[in-house]
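User: For documentation purposes, I need each entry recorded in a consistent format: the amino acid sequence on its own, followed directly by the corresponding structure tokens. There are two entries in this batch. Please keep commentary to a minimum and don't merge the entries.

Assistant: Recorded as requested. Entry 1:
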Amino acid sequence: MTQVINEEQLDYCDVLIKPKRSTLNSRKEPNVYRKYTFKWSNRTIEGNGLTVANMATTGTFEMAKVFQYNKMFCCLQKHYSFDSLYEFFTENNLSAKTLDGHICGNDYVFLSTGINTEDVNKTKRVLDTGLCKNLCIDIANGYIPKLLEAVSLFRKEYPDIIIMVGNVVTGDMVQDLILAGADLVKCGIGPGANCTTRKQTGVGRPQLSTVLDCAEAAHAVGGYICADGGITCYGDIAKAYGAGADFVMVGSLVAGTDEAEGDIIEKVYRTNEYDCYIETEERVVDGFTLIDEISVPDKPKYETKKFKLAYGMSSKYAQDKHWNGMANYRTSEGIVTLKEYVGPVQNIIDDYLGSLRSTMTYINCTKLKDFPKVTTFYKVRRILNNDGKGIL
């Protein structure tokens, strides 16, 4: 019999974080890094939980290099060849350093794979080199039996690797995946900016409630979660941490940067302004001739804006580009968008860290790991004034 869950489900836009009395006097004081000790691999890595999604446009080698320098994580896209991956992991293993000079090798980079035979075989070839010890098993529907089988298989054959897997939105499945051998579970179905799964299938769950439920379940069995999708601004990342997320995955946030794949696309737009010319007009007042200058609109002004292409990995565009077309049993569950070009991704990282420190100062959070302990949410109907928009 069909059931309806009456408990209210919340998204990031439904809440704000309550400020509280703080002992912190400066945004310099909070520690935005923490140590992660992974359940099955038993490895410990110090880092910040911001993680790049393995979208074809964002999960690039160039992106991984910048993120690892900042002690953040990157899931590489699935479509690199074995030779390209081997070359990258070999070079990176020798040269990669973090901002504090720590030699990190490939600690912050995840190899990504699906669960079909071709993907698995390529992944095993890479893992057998011993150069990469982080694996992201990524499929849209984390509830199918084959995913649990894949997690168990990789855990048995490669006991020392960190395994991230997803995607799911319920605590019971999070625990099943962790107990099968995953260290870290990606949580989120349909919240991404380029994802239309909720529209096409009617399946999903608001992201804040997803994180609250899944984080509690994961921590109960010694695992972690990665809040995947639905990030529209830096404040959403803070809300994800506050709800219990250990990692937060972003795609659109970095899709317009230099390090994202794709050429810069220029578009010319007509503005509401015009070039003007001056006309003079004479008039006589009390015997005096006065000359008025009148500004007359002439040609409309145009401006050029720069963009980069971004697309959902379940979109028809992605299927045509990476899998030689969409299978007849599938439907497109993604869209193609243009993301405003914003320059180097380091600018995004610096801005994010500044915002995170500010949030931590507001709620007296000295350590990133303690975020959920000191977070209280207000349920609200509106989170921004003036839609957050200004003239500069």
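Entry 2:
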Amino acid sequence: VSHGITDIEVVAPVDPAQTDDVWERIRLQLSFPISDHERVKKRVQWYANQPNYMEIISRRADPFLYYIVTEIERRGLPVELALVPLFESDFNTTAYSDKHASGLWQLTPLIAKHFGVKINSWYDGRLDIVESTNAALDFLTYLHKRFDGNWLHAIAAYNTGEGRVASAIRRNERAGKSTDFFSLRLPRETRDFVPKLLAAADILKNRTIAFPEIANQPVITLVPLQNGVIIDNSK
């Protein structure tokens, strides 16, 4: 009896680096388990109701996403981290919060300086894609280790601070409750932040909505400057 097994075409795995689209490069490497938590499902539905959102995001991310993904791969980190600027800043390099966080990765001055970002009267490295990405990934790597390899705890701590997440974990431990992310009592922004990332990974993985293509090739070039340069953006 033939079950047709010999008729199955074996397709070689696609090398993410050889795809034409950076979003596809990310999609092929997604590793976080898909969550069916209600907060994630609600966010997936939100994306489905905002079909133009990813078009705007892709336009903003176009100059930066290739570099970010390349750095994440180089460090051996989960590619889902490339989605963090999606929710921190909407890929807006000049985003500034009421907590004085700035740039694509929304780094506060204290965290930025701790991880080697230069900030002075003339220069804010948080607005520099190279400096800010290095600092953000250093910070996330530290938080991953701090929270014993739990990426959802690390990402939550990136958003709200490691002290709050650590306190929430201890509170649940004392009460004999689960310490998984969705069981923790955290600020509303953080309770929404992680589901946003998981939902974006879900719709990208399942191609629920279209992510406009971003060319999978370098866009920025690093150029050493001997002296300071004033850039006029008034025109």
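Summary note for entry 2:
Confidence is low (pLDDT under 50) at residues 1-12, 231-235.
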